[in-house]
Amino acid sequence: MALCDLHWRSEILAKHVGTYVYIPDDAPPPFPVFYLLHGLSDDYTIWLRRTSIERYATRHRMMIVMPDGFRGFYTDNHDGPACARYIAEELVETVERIFPAKQSRDARSIGGLSMGGYGALRIALAHPQKFISATSHSGAVLHGSRDHPRPGGALGKAEFHRIFGDNPVGTDHDVVALAKKCKDAGTLPHLRIDCGVDDDLVEDNRALHAKLDALRVPHQYEEFPGAHNWDYWDLHVQEALAFHQRHFDAATS
Predict the structure, then answer these.
(1) Which of 69, 87, 217, 237 is the most exposed place for a label (fewest CB within 10 A)?
(2) What is the per-residue pLDDT across 13-55, written as a single tens digit (0 to 9) for each?
(3) For 155-204, how does the pLDDT look when each residue is reduced to its tens digit (9 = 90+)?
(4) How much is the pTM?
């Protein structure tokens, strides 16, 4: 794999941002792309620093793009930047203009952990014409489906309301509402959600699973031993890579 450390200006965020891009160097281009999102307290370098993502990626014929998501939850903030548009529109356009990426829905996927797990679902379900599949590890998946911060969570009231507004339920912050809209329109991406049984967010993930089942939204849901840590994510990102690869392959077969 070739690693590119890309620094570019986001007009949507009105600032320069950093992005890591892995490109296969043992297969002919163009390549499908997996956009991999970090959690609340990290940055675009963390997947490389804390996991063996480069080694795992060599098993798959895809590019991996790791952008900086700051603390915006990858959603268009109520009082702040349009972080979802920055990823779904501007980042995708920038990657496909500079790198040998395939330029179709069937060749784009997105995933992440914690804040990034929520973000991957939120972006894919709000932009179903852009992404064939989405994965969430230990996701903060119900943050846009309530009108207050999660008790004991990392967001205080002021930051929560700056990001999601006073009542995000039913809006484009709400992955349950977005999933229903996609199902009704017949535009659902393929979804995979997992969480550790000792994770503080497991009850939110179970609740999302139940809500999606009640709506008859097709998705994969799994729980595994583990907590909210890099041991868990280093292991289970391998399953996400395989999940996306299957859907890339199915789309071209």
Answers:
(1) 217
(2) 999 999 999 999 989 999 999 999 999 999 999 999 999 999 9
(3) 999 999 999 999 999 999 999 999 999 999 999 999 999 999 999 999 99
(4) 0.98
Rg (the chain; Cα; Å)? 17
Strand partners, 134: 110, 191
Contact status, residue 101 vs residue 26, Cβ threshold 8 Å? no
Q: Is the separation of the CB atoms in 110 and 37 below 8 Å? A: yes
Buried b (16+ CB within 10 A) or exposed e, 40-72: bebbbebbbeebebeebbeebbbbbbbbbbbeb
Q: What type of residue sits at position 209?
A: H
Residue carrying the six token digits 């789309």? 251
All domains of the chain in start order, with CATH: 2-252 (3.40.50.1820)
| DSSP 3-state percent helix, strand, coil across the chain (nearest 5) | 40, 20, 40
| Residue 129: Cβ within 10 Å count | 9
